[in-house]
Amino acid sequence: MSPNEWIKDTAIYQPGKPLEEVKRELGLTEVIKMASNENPWGCSKEVWSKGVSHPEDTPFYPEGAAPDLTEKIAEHIETDPSRILLGNGTDEIVKMLAQVYLKPGKNAIMADFTFPRYEMVTKMTGADIVKVPLSDGCHDLKEMENRINADTQIVWICNPNNPTGTIVDRVTIESFLERIPPHVLVVMDEAYQEYVTHPDYPDTIALIDYNPQVIALRTFSKIYGLASFRIGYAVAHPSVIQMLNRVRDPFNTNRYAQSAALHALTDQTFVLYCRNQNRLGMKQITSQLEKWDLSYYPSQANFILIHTGFAGDDVFNHLLRAGIIVRSGQVLGYPTSIRVTIGTKEQNELFLQAFAAFLKEKGKI
Ligand SMILES: *Cc1c(COP(=O)(O)O)cnc(C)c1O
């Protein structure tokens, strides 16, 4: 048996540490997870009161293309249903894009550092990976454009970027799209779009109306609080959607996920509440960081990359013993940083206290 070379070289994805594992290993009962950008307010009440019911349907396959949910999303983002594709999480769509557009000899351009799945799925196809360093935590679109060649198939843009939380603004993306050649697909991963409050954030759905080169990825895992259901969607020109449908597994989204997402969409009050609470939580954390003279990237998402001045793993381990799971920057390309998901007011306070204890121990404050 000989696996493909490029598969042997692909790293196995390292997720944030699960709650259950930390409780077991450290014998803790109270653990707070601020590691995977999940929603600390859970999900809309609509999901469990109306969405996840009808156990009698369990033996039956769902509708593969999820027409009801597709219709509802189209209405919500004001586009045509033919421009929407659902995935088993956005992660699945990222992989489908690689399957459809990449192969050995072709290449995909991405930031260094960004969401690790782009690199992994590119590698799985045997295509070349072109990494363009972030400039002060932001995508460097000028340099990404310079690196495009005849074999470039995809440019991955994570907006806001994970792990830095920075955004590419409307003017920058529009002028980038005007200059790049027509054979390149630009993937705008907008997993955190609903959290953004910046006035210059691009309206990608409107861009897609007249630009078949752009695809937007959105998810129900983050602000909608449905990560365990695994459901996300892509918005693109119908010609791109039709290609993705060719590699889509027949029943890629299950009936409970479809129904949960449908009901979650109807509760925009919940979404608004989470966005506002997130902004307040962000302020709560950044104002303390400023008092401590610690730097961070300005984030439009529900997480923040904090430059601690100490090994990220050390900070991570210290916080873990206090029952707080964050993400060490060491696996994210920022060895002396930590990435922290914004929690509830109380969770943020507990994080700040535990972090303060670490900084005191090190003589930083
Ligand atoms: C969380 C995340 C996703 C994955 O979302 P799923 O829909 O849960 O697969 C995609 N892109 C980025 C940048 C993310 O942070």
Order of helices and strands: HHEHHEHEHEHEHEHEEHHHEEHEEEH
Bound molecules: pyridoxal-5'-phosphate
Portion of residues in beta strands equals: 15-25%
Structural class assignment: alpha/beta
Folded structure, characterized:
The chain has 365 residues and is α/β, with parallel strands linked by helices. The protein has helices at residues 5-8, 19-26, 45-51, 67-77, 90-101, 116-124, 141-147, 170-179, 204-210, 238-247, 255-266, 268-291, 312-321, 345-361; strands at residues 32-33, 84-87, 107-112, 128-133, 152-158, 185-189, 214-219, 232-235, 295-296, 303-307, 324-325, 327-328, 337-341. Helix 9 (204-210) links the parallel strand 6 (185-189) and strand 7. The protein is globular, with a radius of gyration of 21 Å. The model has no long low-confidence stretch (mean pLDDT 96).
What's this, in brief?
With 365 residues, this protein is α/β, with parallel strands linked by helices. The protein has helices spanning 5-8, 19-26, 45-51, 67-77, 90-101, 116-124, 141-147, 170-179, 204-210, 238-247, 255-266, 268-291, 312-321, 345-361; strands spanning 32-33, 84-87, 107-112, 128-133, 152-158, 185-189, 214-219, 232-235, 295-296, 303-307, 324-325, 327-328, 337-341. The protein starts with a helix and ends with a helix.
